[in-house]
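Lab channel / #folding
Pinned by the channel admin:
"Please post every new chain as: sequence first, then the structure tokens as a reply. Keep commentary short and put observations after the output so the thread stays searchable."

First post following the new format, from NK:
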Amino acid sequence: MLNIIKQEIEMEKSLKQKLEFICDFCNTTPTIINGSIRKLDKTNLIYIGPHKVIIKNITFLVFNYSTDIYIKNLNHKIQPSELENYIKSIN
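Reply from TO:
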């Protein structure tokens, strides 16, 4: 039987500040859920779960040390500089 080890990872401080700063400009408050690392015990398989940022009922996925923000899934991505305009267009 495989044992799954789950460890929560904290969002990078500068990334969190950047997202909160953008949301302040848009008069909204993000809900941030930290990502996780999942390891299969006695194997070399590891899955890194992204951080989830929920803004106006839309889930954005972000990774530490990445320059992309993913919208709903990993197929559609934007740059942090485009996030403010995207949030304002949601209204």
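NK: The beta strands are 4-8, 31-33, 36-40, 46-49, 51-55, 58-62, 69-71, 77-78.
TO: also worth noting, Residues 13-25 form the longest helix (13 residues).
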